[in-house]
Amino acid sequence: MKIATLIARNLLGLLFLVMGLNGFLHFIPMPPPTGLAGQYFAVLFVSHYLVAVFLVQVIGGALLLANRFVPLALILLGPILVNILLFHSLMAPAGLPLALFTAVLWGILFYGVRRAFAGVFAQRVQTEAERRLSALSPGE
Q1: Whole-prediction pTM value?
Q2: Mean pLDDT per 10-residue run, the chain (140 residues)?
């Protein structure tokens, strides 16, 4: 599993770094999408929303490649990946295989660092106020 996590981290980091940089530098020529997908991209482009998305992709990809703050990178890239999956599922199905492959890589890497997310999956957590209150009341 260690090797799979390493490969997933590097592939995912490279994929997001390259695609994020491509959003700024346009070194991979891609024809604009047509139909509803084209309208969606036009709105995102004109509003400069994509600048933030590409920046988060570059930051997340660089963190993964540097093997620093990997859980943070997964948190940053997770919502972007959900949007990519929804976009390709609903508007541009031609890119769905690559989106699914990316989701599998994300899942493998998430599984590899799942201990970092243990607190997120706690069913009930005690707040600081509850902790202080229980310390003051003896017998419970």
Answers
A1: 0.88
A2: 96 98 94 91 94 98 98 98 97 95 98 94 86 76
